[in-house]
Amino acid sequence: QVQLVESGGGLVQPGGSLRLSCIKSGGTFRLYTMGWYRQAPGTQRELVATITRNGSPNYADSVKGRFTISRDNAKNTVYLQMNSLKPEDTAVYYCNFYPPSDYWGQGTQVTVSS
């Protein structure tokens, strides 16, 4: 059974940084494109970034130049380094395959506020 466990969220001031981690268990990690998604209150879940099995990243325009996605296939882990955070980045962040499967984890809350 696939499990996705996100961590690393928290409260940070505007301009600050956070690094999110997502560990996947069950199945083969290294073969899949992975993605980070986020959902702010009252909005639909949106795609933030993806990374192919070979490590090629892609980003939503709203985070380009500020966020960096990476992966460690040996650890079945995908990361999201978030710099220059803005209040509009406040959301619950999730990782999943891309395109996403039905296996959503609990997510990790990121709050950007002074």
Folded structure, characterized:
The model has no long low-confidence stretch (mean pLDDT 95). The protein has strands at 3-7, 10-12, 18-25, 34-39, 46-51, 57-59, 67-72, 77-82, 91-97, 108-112. By secondary structure, it is an all-beta fold. The chain starts with a strand and ends with a strand. The protein contains no helices and ten strands. It is globular. It is 0% helix and 48% strand. The strands form two sheets. The protein has a six-stranded mixed beta sheet, with no helix packed on it.
Q: Can you summarize this structure?
A:
This protein has a six-stranded mixed sheet, with no helix packed on it. Strands 1-3-8-7 form a four-stranded antiparallel sheet, with no helix packed on it. The protein contains no helices and ten strands. By secondary structure, it is an all-beta fold.
Task: Quote the beta fraction.
Answer: over 45%
Report the radius of gyration as a whole number of Å.
Answer: 13 Å
Form type: globular
Assembly type: single chain
Mean pLDDT: 95
Side by side, the strands of the main sheet go 2-10-9-4-5-6
Please bin the fraction of helical residues.
under 10%
Number of helices: 0
Please give the largest β-sheet.
Answer: 6 strands, mixed
| Number of DSSP strand runs | 10
List keywords for this structure.
114 residues, mainly beta, 6-stranded mixed sheet, 4-stranded antiparallel sheet, 10 strands, single chain, globular
